[in-house]
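user: can you give me the structure for this one chain? tokens are fine.
assistant: on it. calling the predictor now.
[tool input]
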Amino acid sequence: DGRAGYIAAPISNRWCAMPWPDRRFTELLKIEHPIVLAPMAGAIDHEIAAEVAEAGGLGSIPCAMLDLDQI
């Protein structure tokens, strides 16, 4: 949709899309948007991580409260 590689930046008390200055991070991780979901144990689950990944960001699964069988 033409928005890949853009960040929101404040300009004159308004937010607008600006080109992301460095694409190495998104290219390295093969993601569309420079958004990383923090793996917050107890607050999020695998479903949110999957949604972030499907939307082009890096979804992270919180595993701090899981044992090996659950992972």
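assistant: here you go. The first strand starts at residue 6 and ends at 11. Residues 46-54 form the longest helix (9 residues).
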